[in-house]
Write a structure and sequence with these properties.
The complex is a heterotrimer of chains A (120), B (352) and C (173).
Chain A: H1 2-31, H2 60-89, H3 91-113
Helix pairs in contact in A: 2-3
Chain B: H1 2-5, H2 7-25, H3 29-67, H4 83-92, H5 104-120, H6 139-147, H7 150-160, H8 164-195, H9 200-205, H10 212-215, H11 217-230, H12 242-245, H13 255-280, H14 296-315, H15 323-351
Chain C: H1 3-32, H2 36-56, H3 60-84, H4 100-120, H5 135-144, H6 148-172
The chains are: A mainly alpha (120), B mainly alpha (352), C mainly alpha (173).
């Protein structure tokens, strides 16, 4: 129950963030002028009429970076509990985590060697 | 003086006063007291976020001015101190323009997704002993988790604008943030290993004799660099590189919607500085070995604003780096160094 | 039962129902909206509501890791994936595809399984109340002690995923 009460604060602060934004929107809505014209509704492209579709296709590299990120993020998730108990478990925990990290570092090295980490 | 910084007494005083008021009006005390106390806490933090953003923006412009041998804003108010307030009013008065081809709802909600996590991080900021909104058991992991939500807002803003530059800026920005977030989490692991806890107050308590910046200098440097990149600040402000991408993911945002991104950026910068001060500079502790001359909250704010100053200093000193350098640096330098730091810390701790 | 206990019971029940409602609504929206980006955004809200449900079950670490990995990383990955997909400009996806039959079979089997588990569950027995204060440390001890082999195997799974993705992506270039 203590936990739920604690996290009520998190929800409240999420609400506070929303209050900031929507409060700002409403205040602005009340006092700002409104003179719409069709020209204003164009997207900005250095003063020119926009060319082509705006939703361009992306390089696959972005996806690979995101994927490597996910994998290392999972590793970090394992590192948190490890770091907490590291002091009491000592050498055993150290060796176990080094093996874990070494295996993943092989993956990083592989990506590096294959030129995935190079931005194009 | 002590009364002001001792939250327990403060809350007790408020509650006594409120209980008296409740009796006067025959209200059930418990619920009302709780609600009002919560409202006061929210109002305090909300007020702090706004005032802090205004002050830091002004400080940034003033410091930039002095670093470039000019005066910075001088016109509005004495020495220009009302400049940001005037800017805020100006932004409120701007017309609302949503591009015709924008995805309206996503466009409208993106500032919320950026702003809310920034505010949520304030839940675990330790201001002074006992003065912390909620000292979660998993404070540090919570901060990392909340910090990773904002990226979605940036992608939302970039995608929904219907502008090539916005989309490119949004994707670039998110790729950068996730890359450096990794280095940041890994740098923090070193501190957690030493402290053996994820609770903010425990980590500060463990630093009473020796700040972790002494034991973890590499982690500190990695953290500061990664935090600069996380906040999208120069020299890592490529997503907003004016010369290539106009204004990055918020190109199409104007008026109050833009102000929200701006506010979130400064709220995030304060969080990053405060976390850095807490994890590496001993938080509310004074300098070890010396008598504590100042109240804890002053120490905390002093250290935090020192880091904020450092961020501002970086911005006006270093030129912007190229995008390939940015990703290469994050993945090929920071990440291996962060792993090295964990390994070294573990080795030293096992040997000693 | 004193007033505090009743209050807390009401609070936790309310939290559960609100979160469950959000989860169900968003879950349905994920598979029904036509715009892929909207679907991913609803997925993010759905994952957040699941994190909230973990909190009501007192699984703090799981909840936060849920946000850290699923919302902070997987959703971003999905976003990037959508930006990469072909014909991203009109964004509407055709509903229905040639794997419909297989999907229905799998969903049916899964539903039966869940239904069976729900039937086998003894709902009327109150679970023993355990207050766990150091769940992270416990998870750490278990991971490095009793479950060390699965833990090390996880790194191999992750490595395989990493190398597999790189190989597939390079083939496409």
């Amino acid at each position: 129950m203590k936990l739920l009460a604690d996290y009520m604060w998190v929800v409240l602060f999420m609400g506070l963030g929303m209050l900031f934004v929507f409060g700002g929107y409403i205040t602005s809505w009340l006092i700002r002028p409104s003179k719409p014209s069709s020209k204003k509704l164009f997207t900005y492209e250095c003063g020119e009429v926009p060319v082509g579709s705006s939703w361009v296709q992306f390089n696959i590299r972005y996806y690979l970076f995101a994927l490597i990120f996910v994998i290392f993020d999972v590793e970090v998730a394992f590192l948190f509990p490890w770091a907490v108990v590291f002091k009491e478990l000592g050498l055993v925990a150290f060796v176990e985590m080094m093996i874990f990290m070494a295996i993943l570092l092989v993956g990083l090295l592989y990506a590096w060697r294959k030129g995935i980490l190079k931005w194009m | 003086m002590q009364l002001l910084f001792d939250t327990q007494q403060l809350v007790n005083n408020i509650q006594h006063w409120l209980a008296g008021t409740c009796e006067l009006y025959h209200l059930p005390p418990c619920l009302v007291v709780t609600c009002i106390a919560i409202a006061v806490a929210l109002a305090l933090i909300g007020g702090f976020i706004s005032v802090n953003a205004m002050m830091v923006v002004l400080a940034e412009r003033k410091i930039a001015g002095y670093m470039q041998d000019r005066l910075g804003p001088m016109r509005v108010g004495p020495y220009g101190i009302l400049q940001t307030a005037a800017d805020a009013v100006k932004l409120l008065l701007k017309e609302n323009i949503v591009p015709k081809i924008a995805d309206k709802w996503v466009f409208f909600l993106a500032p919320v997704v950026v702003m809310s996590p920034a505010v949520m991080a304030y839940v675990v900021l330790p201001w002074s002993p006992g003065l912390i909104v909620c000292d979660l058991n998993l404070g540090v992991v919570y901060l990392m988790a909340v910090g990773s939500i904002g990226v979605i807002g940036i992608i939302m803003a970039g995608w929904s604008s219907g502008n090539k530059y916005s989309l490119l800026g949004g994707i670039r920005s998110s790729a950068q943030i996730v890359s450096y977030e990794l280095a940041m989490s890994l740098a923090v692991i070193g501190v957690l290993m030493l402290a053996g806890s994820l609770k903010m107050s425990d980590i500060i308590g463990a630093q009473q004799d020796c700040w972790y910046i002494i034991k973890q200098p590499l982690a500190f440097i990695l953290f500061i660099i990664a935090a600069t990149a996380e906040c999208n600040r120069a020299p890592f402000d490529l997503p907003e590189a004016e010369s290539e991408l106009i204004a990055g993911f918020h190109t199409e945002y104007g008026g109050i919607k833009f102000a929200m991104f701006f506010l979130a950026e400064y709220a995030n910068m304060f969080v990053a500085s405060a976390v850095c001060a807490t994890l590496f500079l001993g938080g509310w502790n004074g300098i070890p070995g010396l008598p504590m001359i100042l109240p804890p909250i002053v120490w905390f704010l002093l250290k935090t604003y020192l880091i904020v100053f450092l961020f501002i200093w970086f911005r006006w000193t270093y030129p912007r780096i190229r995008v390939d350098q940015l990703m290469g640096f994050g993945w090929k330098v920071l990440l291996p160094l962060a792993f090295l730091n964990i390994g070294l810390t573990g080795l030293v701790m096992v040997l000693i | 039962m004193n007033i505090d206990a009743i209050c807390s019971l009401v609070l936790s029940n309310m939290a559960f129902f609100v979160l469950a409602a959000i989860g169900i609504v968003c879950g349905v929206l994920v598979v029904t909206v036509r715009n892929l980006v909207h679907a991913v955004l609803f997925l993010a809200v759905f994952l957040l509501s699941v994190a909230g449900l973990f909190i009501t079950l007192e699984a703090e670490f799981l909840a936060i890791i849920q946000v850290f990995i699923f919302v902070g990383a997987i959703v971003v990955l999905f976003m990037f994936l959508i930006m990469l997909t072909y014909k991203v400009s009109d964004m509407a996806v055709p509903q229905g595809n040639r794997l419909k039959g297989a999907a229905i079979v799998v969903a049916g089997v899964l539903f039966c399984l869940i239904f069976y588990i729900m039937k086998a569950m003894k709902w009327n027995e109150a679970a023993p109340v355990v207050t766990i204060t150091d769940d992270v440390a416990r998870i750490g001890r278990l991971l490095l002690g009793q479950y060390v082999l699965p833990f090390e195997l996880v790194s191999f799974v992750l490595l395989a995923a990493l190398i597999g993705a790189i190989v597939i992506a390079r083939k496409g270039e």
